[in-house]
Amino acid sequence: METNVQHQPNQSVSEDRSMKYVLSFVWMLLLTGASFAIVTMHLVPENMVIPALLILAMLQVLLQFFTFMHLDFKKSRLTAVFTFSGIAIGFICAIALWLIS
Amino acid sequence: MTTIIVLLVFAMFLGGIFTGGYTSRYVKRMEESSIWGWITTVDHKRIGILYLISGGFFFAVGGLEALLIRIQLMFPNAKFLVGDEYNQILSMHGTTMIFLVAMPLLFALMNAVVPLQIGARDVAFPFLNALGFWMYFAGALLLNISWLFGGAPDAGWTSYASLALPDYSPGPGVNYYVLGLQISGIGTLMSGINFLVTIINMRAPGMSYLRLPMFTWATFVTSALILFAFPPLTAGLFMMMFDRLFGSNFFSVTGGGNVIIWEHIFWIFGHPEVYILVLPAFGVFSDVLSNFSKKRIFGYHSMVFALVLIGFLGFMVWLHHMFTVGLGDVANSVFAIATMAISVPTGIKVFNWLFTMWGGRLRFTTAMLYASGFIVTFVMGGVTGIMLAVPPADFQFHDSYFVVAHFHYVILGGTVFGILAGVYYWWPKMFGSLLNEKLGKWNFWTFFLGMHLTFFPQHFLGLFGMPRRVFTWSPGYRLELGNYLSTIGAFLMLIGVIFMVINVLLTLTKGAPAESDPWDGRTLEWTISSPPPEYNFAQLPLVRGVDAWWLEKMEGNEKMTPSEPLGAIHMPNASHLPFVMAVGLFISGFGFVFQTSEVGAIGLIVVIATLFIRSFQEDHGHHIEPLELSEKGVNH
To answer: Are B594 and B172 contacting, i.e. CB atoms less than 8 angstroms apart?
Structure first.
């Protein structure tokens, strides 16, 4: 069953929420555009390109987590469990790759 | 581009001729036809059947490829399939069997059973479920259409970089691999998320996590693995796609790329993938063994713990596929130890299965035969796995037929036996009739013996030095007998599959209707009619312990205690959008395979348009009223 099982959801709340999705989607597009701009238009010094890209990527990940993956609802412990085990697995893989290469 | 438009117009003409013209009644007639019903369905039971049919079809394709491989390797210096033809058949056999056979058939069982086992009326996102299926099917078709247009992928199922880059694979073959897997992989990711949400949110009242049936637990852990393992594949395939289509240099050494990165990314996905394949089979066996031993599964908590631990450790061992790359003794030792650690939870599970059978009232139905055959076969595959986990030994075994024998023992003996056991066990629930047990036993014994005859000699072929992936071998190295027996075994397996097909056809045409609980089952799916009504449960059941249905039976109850009064049931609406979106992705993928950006863009526009329509569609579903329930003969 899909999310709209409640038949009369509070109209203003649901509109607020969908506005939030649209807004963070726009922000993600802007961040992606900014990453492209940094690489193609030489906006920052050569040695700062990768750190700048990483910072933009981090911002985008946080945006993802808090709007689309509902980390802000603070309702379900499982959401946090899954998010953090995902981060942990990614972290371990990254460390291992860094150590062996 | 023009060719495609001509083909489209031609198809529309033919469609018009065969359906009686595009009149005003055309749309109505189309909506009433049963094919339209199957295309637009969002019912998890019907999607399960769609997965079963398409997985079965590709099983035939992949099996045919396997037979061709074995025919070529039957005698030394054979000229049946030489060089590139062999490479294509071999690559497609691996890719097809893993991504287009094993995974969809497991999804077939999950779709058919998991919502019933947790006492739910559907999955959490029925629309996504349909979309996942159609995307898998679009990707699968795209991969296999390569046989007709431009040649199939020929860089192996792992598609290692440098070999898979344009310098060495100039044709469109690997493009098909990249785009086909990309599309079907995203579908798989969706289905995985869907099952996670379903199991977390839609359990019936009283169905706590530690009362879930083992198959549901296995599905849960598998879906978590899919969630974490498929994004690396998606990322890797995108990099490969950009390297091949748009001239980037992620993996190309001449442009400063690194070929080893592809191996890392592929196996960071690929190792969890083999657990994605085998964990649902573990779940099937746990349910089948406990049912036909008439006992609760031995050590339920340790079984759950072992599943989760295997799932976690599955991410920590990918390097054991790369021992010979030369990453150093420390890296090899660490990953060797991690790999051996997985044998501990797996051992827990094997002993628990044996203790479940110990002292039970055993009934050797076909499903039970597959389950017992699995224990033997899988332990043999596991032992060779431990041998391969030892780096010094692996330097000898690497890229030899020993590895081929090992992974066929675990994948055939684990996943395929699991799927077959599950199909025999849940067939009545999916189709409402029982498969013939006599033919089933013929099917089991020919398939089981054929499997061992095919792959047991391959251990020795590997030890005698026969390399994998090579299309021929020379006489005089003691390889003759092994290869001969192996091919005979492959044909024995073919006979087994033919028994299965006959059995299915006989059952579909003349099968007697099955009762709701033909196996004297223990879990919730056996409390409702076979096949279940569209809404599964007229009233959601109240679950009071592990093996909920068995508990009620032991207390002399005829049915589950309902947990809610009879009321209107909310159901999702059927939708054609998933199919349209998959068609769009297929067109787009086909365009990008031939680097025709216009066609690719047209497909993507279709996808985005469907996304847009779906995003702003007010689709609240419909209700089935209690009055209609009683008309449909529900006796609650």
So the answer is: yes
